[in-house]
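Researcher: I'd like a candidate sequence for this fold, 118 residues long. If you have to choose between options at a position, lean toward the conservative one.
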């Protein structure tokens, strides 16, 4: 097992090629352990070179609404009046902490997605 740090795009390409060769290796085997280490190295490289911007809380809400087949009216118990729901969905009002708590508990939207705006 010859594992080297990923410092360049060429290193990344070589590591991805090795991951492809190892894909499906049994957990706990030497190959499986190598695959796990390479995956961690790739993740670290991508975090450093391609950071993800914080998610938009409204997009997280809209995504969850789509998943559950909800309408804006269905958000009223979590956000408030229809006017307030409209303001939030149109980026005219930020989520308050009580709204965030209710959305998390009621719709299971992760806190980290909802708090990006706070």
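Model: Candidate sequence:
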């Amino acid at each position: 097992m010859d594992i080297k740090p990923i410092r360049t795009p060429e290193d990344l390409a070589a590591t991805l090629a090795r991951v492809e060769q190892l894909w499906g290796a049994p957990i706990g085997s030497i190959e499986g352990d190598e695959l796990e280490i390479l995956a961690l190295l790739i993740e670290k490289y991508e975090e450093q070179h391609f950071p993800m911007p914080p998610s938009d809380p409204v997009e997280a809400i809209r995504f969850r609404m789509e998943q559950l087949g909800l309408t804006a009216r269905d958000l009223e118990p979590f956000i408030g009046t229809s006017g307030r729901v409209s303001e939030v969905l149109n980026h005219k009002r930020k989520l308050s902490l009580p709204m965030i708590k209710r959305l998390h508990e009621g719709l299971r939207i992760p806190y980290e997605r909802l708090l990006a705006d706070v």
